[in-house]
Amino acid sequence: MGPEEFRQAAHELVDWVADYRLKVADLPVRSDVAPGEVIAALPAVPPEAPEPLDALIEDLDRVIVPGLTHTQHPRNFAWFPSNASLSSVLGDIVAAGIGALGITWQSAPALTELEQVVCDWARQLCGLSEAWSGTIYDGASTASLVALLVAREKVTNGSQRRGGLQAEDYPLTAYCSTEAHSAVTKAALLAGYGAENLRLVPPRRPGREMDVAALASSMADDAAAGRRPAAVVATAGTTATTAFDPLAEVCEIAGHYGAFVHVDAAMAGSAMLLPECRELFAGIEAADSLSWNPHKWLGSVLETSLFYVRQPELLVSVMSTNPSFLRSSLDGSVVQYRDWGLPLGRRFRALKLWALLRLEGAEAIRGRMRRDLANAQRFASVVGQETGWTVLAPVKLQTVCVRHTPGEMSGEALDKHTLAWCEAVNSSGLAHLTPALLDGRWMVRVSVGAEATEWADLEALWALMQLKVKAVL
Ligand SMILES: Cc1ncc(COP(=O)(O)O)c(C=O)c1O
């Protein structure tokens, strides 16, 4: 395809995307395709001859759109906001169109330096000190893995350059709350700590922040038994209930053992843009690394996960490789992001966050998030006042955790009821919610914050929830 043919096709496709966004509110939120239906609807063999763009667009409408749960739908309250603001989409189009290859600073100086600028803009918007240097990863899961690798190497003084963890005299231990994301457990296992050396510290109350007294005693027990406390992953905004681990206390306790502290603020990090929310992150400056995802609530297209460290040289010492074909005379004087993470070849990820910040402006983004915070509070208050309904956790940001209890119902019967009304809401296609376990019992999360969600959408959701609860009883 040449540039002129591309121009015409791209105009048509951009029209298609704009039309999709215009009609998304009228589509069923959750896809109801059966497993295998998308595969069955597509040819089993690839085309030998070129097909017209119209054929591709036809399949987008016929197969792809029905096979989507519509994240950008105004009544999508599932999981977490995963906003792909159209301003950010523009940046992503440019990134793909330019096709830059980020393998060294020299291979695309603007790719590296725009990433430095954008990470620093985001740092400033979050009110973080100049001590932090950032990069953009694909996701917070990668950030947790890298943080635990760096912690491992820091505490063992570079075991990977000797016999690795297998040759260490003492096991390293890592800590996170039971409420931490499953990605933290995955990262600890992948980083070689071993399940037996990962401590899941209980929360103060079910669904709440980490019990720091339990953390302190767990670390003390491990140290006394000859194990080496190496890393704590604190969560700022847990996935189920948006609880915030007390960062100042966590960092102080970890500091006694020289353990590395990583803060996982994947969803909630966007709230640092709001000065009135920064208290929730108090103590963050004492941590060693921090990750948050502008591709969640903020509105940058997916795979914009910011990872900040206080000691980039430590990161580089763990990640750096230096094959002859990547060397240049500038080595040592420029940032080589390949040494800040796992992949060598990187996309021009900064463009989508850059475009979002420039074309929206921080004030409008803050305004949207404040709307969501107010809507979540109002929703919690409406639900909490209704007989039989309970709001189960403090609404720290935009997630409201609810349960409906008919009469004296409890235990497994209550679980069955919760899952039934939630599924009835979801299968209606009119809204989408996520059930989750809280203290071993099912509840339903209402995650407010899709870019298009207004109060009227929450009113519609509330009416639907009440209707479906009656229908399943
Ligand atoms: C607290 C927390 N950590 C980590 C993750 C995983 O993030 P990612 O999908 O960017 O790997 C999530 C996603 O919901 C999360 O809420």
Describe the 3D structure:
With 473 residues, the chain is of the alpha/beta class. 41% of the residues lie in helices and 12% in strands. The chain has 14 helices and eleven strands. It has helices at 3-23, 37-40, 53-64, 86-98, 109-125, 140-155, 182-190, 212-224, 247-256, 312-319, 350-360, 362-384, 411-428, 455-472, and strands at 133-137, 172-177, 198-201, 228-235, 260-264, 289-292, 305-309, 389-391, 399-404, 434-438, 441-447. It has a seven-stranded mixed sheet, with helices on both faces. Strands 8-9-11-10 form a four-stranded antiparallel sheet. It is globular. The mean pLDDT is 97. Bound molecules: pyridoxal-5'-phosphate (PLP). Pyridoxal-5'-phosphate is lined by residues 80, 139-141, 181, 183, 235, 239, 264, 266-267, 293, 305.
Give a quick rundown of the structure.
Helices cover 41% and strands 12% of the residues. β2 (172-177), α7 (182-190) and β3 form a beta-alpha-beta unit. The chain contains 14 helices and 11 strands.
